[in-house]
Amino acid sequence: MLDEALERLHSTGPERNGWLSNHAPMAVEALVRGGHGGTVHRWVDRYRDKLEQAPSSYARVTEENWREAMGDPRRIADWTTYFGVRLAEAPWRTVLATWWPRLLPGIAAGATHPVIRTGHAVRTLLATEADSSGGRAAAEAVRDPAGPRLAELAHALGYWAARSQPLPPVRALASYASAGEALDAVPAVASQSGGIRERLARLDAFPVWPAAELRDPEEAAERLRELVAAAVRRYATHAHGEPVMLVHAATAPNAVLRVLPALPSGLWAPSVSAAWAASAAVTAAYGPGRAASWEALGREAEVLDRDEVFARAAAHGDEHAVKFADTALDPALNLTDPQARAAALRAVELIEPVW
């Protein structure tokens, strides 16, 4: 079902109306992963009015000119072609390890959607590799550059490279031991107006987190899980600031977390730093000044399990609600407290439903 949906979507571009992201590849992967694959084609049918044809080639990206091509949205199609070639020449993990540190400084690209799309693509490839019951078919799915799963990684990386957007330099504020305290201490940008590109340009200062240098890869992974968990729980109390955009304060670092197992361990600590910058940037751009109570949703969350909460998001249908529930309920995070489920319900409550 996922392969069929990706094949339908790969003739479309990663954006519409100039810069709004195509969420469909991410949402359908989350729906399939969450056990709602039977709804995927109907969901894509509904979403197709938001899709545009893939852009035309502008200027070929090569090993000699990729630095000057980085961050040039006119070359989205060329970047996708470039990564398709690279993935045909080398194992996908090798390509990812080469390009991850080059792309990571531009993690804010496309309002963080390219890194999120990369996280969904990598999760699919890792799950395919781990699927021993898939046998030869599973092995071929992660080696066939023409197959939809590798093609999706090429689309995700190409989108990221074309939209690469480094965050502006910021002053370092006080350091914090916990991710939750650090997110609470993020100062809002001077004016929370305009689109995300205008808001990110106003970033001035971030708290320092983690407070101490990460000593080993496993500690880096644990800190990243802590950050995602803190961003999920904060959504339950702060989503009213901007319920759609604040989703990304959690889904962007979770995308990085999903990619870690495919990366050399030496890249894990820098990945935590970039994930923190992305989460803090979205928080600064859209976070409200005051928290709201989540008690009413908490009482509802107490009687619902993970599958029931995700089913609410799937029935709601909005891509952001689906992707946020996919993160808030991610088994890799092991968030068993009701606040995480309440956060997913908050997205369903505040974001306009599709169905």
Structure description:
The chain has 18 helices and four strands. The chain has 355 residues and is mainly α. The protein has a two-stranded antiparallel ribbon. The chain has a two-stranded parallel ribbon with strand order 3-4.
- Largest sheet geometry: 2 strands, antiparallel
The overall average pLDDT, rounded, is 96
Q: How many distinct beta strands? A: 4
Q: Poorly predicted ranges (pLDDT <50, ≥5 residues)?
A: none
Approximately what portion of the residues adopt beta-strand conformation? under 5%
For the largest sheet, list the strands in their spatial order: 1-2
Q: How many angstroms separate the termini?
A: 21 Å
Element-by-element helix/strand order: HEEHHHHHHHHEHHEHHHHHHH
Overall structural class, as computed from helix and strand content, comes to mainly alpha
Cα-atom Rg, whole angstroms? 19 Å
Instruction: Specify the overall morphology.
Output: globular
- The total count of helices amounts to 18
Assign a percent range to the helix content.
55-70%
Descriptive key words:
mainly alpha, 4% strand, two-stranded antiparallel sheet, single chain, 57% helix
Q: Which helices and strands, and how do they pair?
A:
Elements (H helix, E strand, L loop, with lengths): L1 H8 L5 E2 L3 E2 L2 H10 L6 H8 L18 H4 L6 H14 L2 H12 L9 H18 L4 H7 L6 H16 L7 E5 L3 H6 L11 H5 L4 E4 L8 H22 L9 H12 L8 H19 L8 H8 L3 H11 L2 H10 L9 H13 L5
Parallel strand pairs: 3-4
Antiparallel strand pairs: 1-2
Helix pairs in contact: 1-2, 2-3, 2-7, 2-17, 5-9, 7-9, 7-13, 12-13, 12-14, 12-18, 13-14, 13-17, 15-18, 16-17, 16-18, 17-18
